[in-house]
Amino acid sequence: APAWAETGREDLDRVQEQIRWKRARPAVARELEQHLTDQRDAFLEEGTAPEEAECLAVEEMGDPVTVGTELDRIHRPKPQWGLLAATLILALLGGFLRVWLTASGAETYENISPAFTTVALVLGMACLLGAYFLDYTWLTRHAVGVYIGGLVLGVLSLWLPPDINHASYYTRYVVLLYPTVYAVWLYRFRSSHWKGLLLAILGGVPLVIIGCLAPYALGILLLMVTGFALLLAAAGTDWFGVGRGKTAAVVLGIASAMAGSVVWQIWKNGWYRGRLLKFLHPELDPFGGGYQAMSVRKALSVSQWLGEGDWSVAASPDPFERSVPDWSRDFLLTTVVYKLGWLPFLLLVLAVAGLLLWFLWKCLRQRNQAGRLVALSVIVPLALQTVFSAMQNLGYVLFSASMPLVTGNLSTVVTMGLIGLALSVFRQEPIARENSVARGTVVSFQKD
Predict the structure, then answer these.
(1) Could you tell me the pTM of the whole model?
(2) Residue 157: which of 177, 183, 180, 184 has the closest Cα?
(3) Please, which of 128, 222, 274, 396 could form a disulfide with 416 given CB 3.0 to 4.6 Å?
(4) pLDDT tens digits, 345-384
(5) Long-range CB contact pairs, 443-446, < 8 A, 24+
């Protein structure tokens, strides 16, 4: 009809022109167009002629400039100043602690020099802000490209030096991105039924293989646990269209089978049993597999509640810096305990845990499924890293893990970039509510 094609479209365009956040314009326009269609159909049911019904629907919407101005007030990015500030403060605090507490080894170890930490923090801030202002839905719109790019980057990183302890150094950081890559891959298969569910599950296999080739045990664990968490979240919304119960049953069945396989390997393989035994009782092999844990426990045993510990009590021929391996990186929290005391250590761990709980609370409030999946893919791995890092710095070494935001190296750069992506989800939260808000705004103008 001419009236709908010309007058109605012009009014919709004028509404969009008033909305300064370009990301919100298409969503609001779709909702307003649907509202006009509903109003037109209502007039048609009352016996109004088609052309007149369309004109009346446009008139009932109200003045497009006024409606657009009100929608512009509502549909704005939701700044995440609190989370941004907390992230930056923790990162800067971690960098400061690393420079301050490791100053005695800065001349000997190049990678713990103030310059190295400064560069890492600058890069981390750039990644944080860049991801924060990124439209995260771009990732879901280009899911296949993101997935293939992640695989290519992982394969290339396997060839890059250096290899530290027979493990690819850069691949471990690429693997930290894989939970988010998998979340984007999973999002692609909405309403794809059993085929989509199968492809979503199989998509995690190549990512795990790259983690195994690194090899990076913690990265593999983070990816698998996060992947199952994402699949269960998708099952809760019947993402694939096969039923919530059926999806959950498949996911839990696969998870149980894999967990059973791991238990069987530990029981069958003597090396795995020995590794687990040394995790619980490192004193059984104090100069071999239990050396790291024993060194950490020795440092903790001479530490105080507040202030520097007395290393002379440890009866060690070597100083603290030479006794505790990775004292400036993965075991930086042990250094905090020894040089500052237990209280600063507890406050630091509680600060990281509190930040992650804040993120989780924001994530669970997300109505947009894509946003929730992306945010979960960031929060779950960081939470697991926090747990394993705290454990190893208490003398229970199972995986090599860095405390998020605290180490002041490349791990901090990756972590800050991922946190920025989660903040991008929270920043664009108003768009997830466009259906109810846009309709409610139009109705309120009609009543006025």
Answers:
(1) 0.82
(2) 177
(3) 128
(4) 999 999 999 999 999 999 998 888 889 999 999 999 999 9
(5) 445/61, 445/62, 445/63, 445/66, 445/67, 445/70, 446/60, 446/61, 446/62
